[in-house]
Design goal:
142 residues, alpha/beta, Rossmann fold, four-stranded parallel β-sheet, 5 helices
Length: 142
């Protein structure tokens, strides 16, 4: 019997915000059922605001790293989930017939301008949207 956990690979452009938030939530809420990894087309570094708003939610992602897509992980993933349109359009073509590939589009909170309160509010909105989508994913037993 194969006890290997299904591998979920969250992809975004810079692996700094949305994919990190998704990674944090799935690890916190379903990490016993899944192996979770995240990466980006580029590595922009972990966004300090993403770390802060996840800390508010009781999840520590401060030790996460911002990584570039690894083709070996990509080819062995069971689920490939893009979180932004740019990554969805530019994700490397991979020969992985077993992976389910989904696109969950979320606005990039790092691109919001305005007051610190406006920016923080957008990060929280995106965090809650991602959390809801992760909870739905877990409820569906996928």
């Amino acid at each position: 019997m194969d006890n290997k956990k299904p591998l979920i690979y969250f992809l975004c452009t810079g692996n700094s915000c949305r994919s990190q938030i998704a990674d944090g939530y799935l690890n916190a809420l379903g990490g016993d059922k899944y192996e979770v990894k995240s990466a980006g087309l580029e590595a922009h570094g972990l966004n300090p605001r993403a770390v802060a708003i996840m800390k508010e939610a009781g999840i520590d992602i401060s030790n996460n790293t911002s990584d570039v897509i690894d083709t070996e992980i990509l080819s062995s993933a069971d689920y490939i989930i893009t979180l932004c349109g740019h990554a969805d359009e530019h994700c490397p073509v991979v020969r992985n017939d077993k992976a389910q590939r989904w696109h969950w589009g979320f606005e990039d909170p790092a691109k919001v301008t305005g007051t610190e309160e406006d920016i923080t509010a957008k990060f929280r909105d995106v965090r809650e949207s991602i959390k809801s989508r992760i909870e739905q994913f877990l409820k569906e037993g996928k």
